[in-house]
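User: I'm writing a short report section on ligand binding and want a predicted complex to refer to. Could you take this sequence and adenosine-5'-triphosphate and write out the structure as tokens? A short remark afterwards would be nice.
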Amino acid sequence: MPDDALLEIDDLCVAYDGSNALNGVSLRIGKGELICVVGANGAGKTSLIRSISGIVPSSRGSVRINGVEISRRPPWDICEMGIAQVAEGRQIFSALSVEDNLLIGGSLKRARHDLANTLDSVYQLFGRLRERRDQLAGTLSGGEQQMLAIGRAIMSKPEIVMFDEPSIGLSPALTDVMFGVVKSLNEQGITVLLVEQNVAKSLALSSRGYVLENGSVVLHGSSRDLVENPDVQRAYLGL
Ligand SMILES: Nc1ncnc2c1ncn2[C@@H]1O[C@H](COP(=O)(O)OP(=O)(O)OP(=O)(O)O)[C@@H](O)[C@H]1O
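Assistant: Sure. The structure tokens for the complex follow:
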């Protein structure tokens, strides 16, 4: 567990219509870490990301970034504090061009001063987006839309990016490319919270992991220990 936590979550609870999706989740992410949260369908992974980003209200608990409580703040405020999300299903603006989607990501106060450089760095990372900068985002392929969702997050100059199932719907080859991008963003200093059903790949990429079951953390530790844990091997690695 890192000493200098960037993101601290304590006893977080989320309920939909009185039914609990998160039951007191606590986790820490240190500056510069790449950690993963894994779990089966319905375990609460998306609810965790959405409640950190302020889209879904929590019923109890706290979320702090750099020691500042954010759990009652609106989503745009949370983005301004350096937390970006690459949502499951990408959530791009289909009727806008690729570049306009990216510029929306860069419209935060924290990002405006360096817009041209950041846009250039996104186009360097994803040459395909530069080629298609004027194309309507809704006409991009699934893989290109995932690149756009990641590019838009980078445009906001985040301290931490939360990825919700970035490999979903992608071919095995493109999945490897996306995991490579996640790793390289982390190597450039961006802290990463990776939520995935692809447990083997996300444990291989991360230094630590949390296993979520029915809205609770049932295991956490170094990714190396989790890979060797017989319960994880049986339930998530098909061994
Ligand atoms: N808007 C909602 N209204 C009611 N119930 C919801 C809502 N969103 C999620 N849930 C429920 O909360 C639980 C956790 O869902 P969540 O999407 O967080 O899980 P998940 O681990 O991300 O699953 P998946 O891997 O299938 O995306 C599920 O039982 C789900 O049906």
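A remark for your report: The radius of gyration is 17 Å. The CA atoms of residues 34 and 192 lie 5 Å apart.
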